[in-house]
Design a protein that fits this description.
Layout (H helix, E strand, L loop, with lengths): L12 E8 L7 E4 L4 E5 L1 H4 L1 E6 L4 E6 L2 E2 L13 E2 L3 E6 L5 E6 L23 E7 L4 E8 L3 E6 L5 E6 L4 E6 L4 E7 L4 E6 L5 E6 L4 E6 L5 E4 L6 E6 L6 E5 L4 E6 L4 E7 L4 E6 L5 E6 L4 E6 L4 E7 L4 E7 L4 E6 L3 E7 L1
Antiparallel strand pairs: 1-30, 2-3, 3-4, 4-5, 6-7, 8-9, 9-10, 10-11, 12-13, 13-14, 14-15, 16-17, 17-18, 18-19, 20-21, 21-22, 22-23, 24-25, 25-26, 26-27, 28-29, 29-30
Length: 342
């Protein structure tokens, strides 16, 4: 869109469309950067729904695969499986999408997971790579137990996967689709943010009340503990100087200096802050509050709420489309909402 003389924190949110369908029960929605929006429908629908900017459905990607076709069979378990898509991350050119599967369904598989699982006595799972041009799964990558958030490094070298139940993080070589390292991080990792130079991955460890910084060269770690309880989702400022974290049970967003592990500011946005995204100019955060049924805009300059608008029931995912200046929200109860930011 042409310049309007405003920064993102000066604009106002307005609902422009709602997409509701029996085929939708999204856990997340993510913009490809190129006008496509992937909604991950978990085990409730066993697929990924893909929409264009107009809100039209352009593809439905089933999560059923034969692991044997991808050289990913697991001894003692059936090869024909279904997954449960939870999150997605795109390569920088938008040509491929990596979809995490919360758990697997099939002969010999035990599709059990919960929010208090601990340790490695859980089934492994997989990340699917999707060819965005054809909307087909072309690679299946083994990871840990109950992978949730995924992130691609800006240099497209590695994929970082937070494994909720095995309490670790998989570092995947994108060129080969193989695991380079499995990094222990603690109880229930989820959100991930990677620095622009692709040197460091920050992982939110919800049960451990910390953020773990992983050196992506040697996989060494350091803990950031200033985040407080239940950190869930992470984003970095455009210059990487500020790390923003939602804290689900504390109902806040916290701005942290990652170099000094110190809190810059904290703002309450609503009940059960979940996912967030940041505007391209870095002046605004868009935060969904699961129990409040709201989308909140936070001005990053002083961490002040400057706008709030009602969503559907149980908003859980959010993504920002910088070119259209629109915000998409995934409501867990079965809809997507599109907000203009104008």
């Amino acid at each position: 869109m042409p310049p309007d003389g405003k920064s993102a924190d000066q604009r106002t949110l307005r609902l422009v469309d709602t997409i509701a369908s029996a085929d939708l029960q999204p856990k997340s929605v993510v913009h490809s950067g190129d006008g496509l929006f992937f909604a991950q429908n978990m085990m409730y629908r066993h697929n990924v729904s893909v929409f264009d900017r107009e809100g039209e459905l352009v593809a439905t990607i089933p999560d059923a695969v034969d692991l044997a076709d991808f050289g990913a069979a697991v001894e003692g378990r059936g090869t024909k499986v279904k997954g449960s898509p939870v999150e997605v991350a795109f390569t920088s050119d938008g040509s491929h999408a990596y979809v995490s599967n919360y758990k697997m369904y099939g002969d010999g598989w035990n599709p059990v997971a919960d929010d208090v699982c601990q340790g490695r006595n859980w089934d492994p799972s997989f990340v699917y790579r999707v060819d965005v041009a054809s909307f087909t799964i072309d690679q299946v990558i083994p990871v840990g137990a109950v992978p949730k958030y995924v992130a691609v490094s800006p240099d497209d070298r590695v994929l970082v996967v937070a494994n909720w139940c095995s309490l670790d993080t998989s570092i995947i070589d994108i060129a080969t689709g193989t695991e380079l390292a499995r990094v222990d991080v603690g109880l229930h990792p989820r959100g991930i943010a990677i620095t622009k130079d692709s040197s460091t991955a920050y992982v939110a460890v919800m049960g451990g009340a910390k953020i773990v910084a992983i050196d992506l060269a040697d996989y060494s770690t350091r803990d950031l503990v200033s985040v407080g309880q239940t950190p869930r989702h992470l984003v970095l400022s455009p210059d990487d100087s500020v790390l923003y974290a939602t804290t689900n049970k504390a109902n806040t967003v916290r701005a942290i200096d990652p170099t000094t592990d110190s809190v810059i500011a904290t703002v309450r946005t609503g009940e059960q802050t979940r996912s967030m995204d940041i505007s391209d100019d870095g002046t605004a955060l868009y935060v969904v509050n699961y129990a409040s049924n709201t989308l909140t805009k936070v001005r990053t300059a002083d961490m002040t709420v400057v706008d709030s608008i009602a969503t559907g029931t149980r908003p859980v995912g959010v993504t920002y489309d910088r070119d259209a200046r629109r915000v998409w929200v995934a409501n867990y109860t079965g809809s997507l909402m599109i907000f203009a930011d104008e």
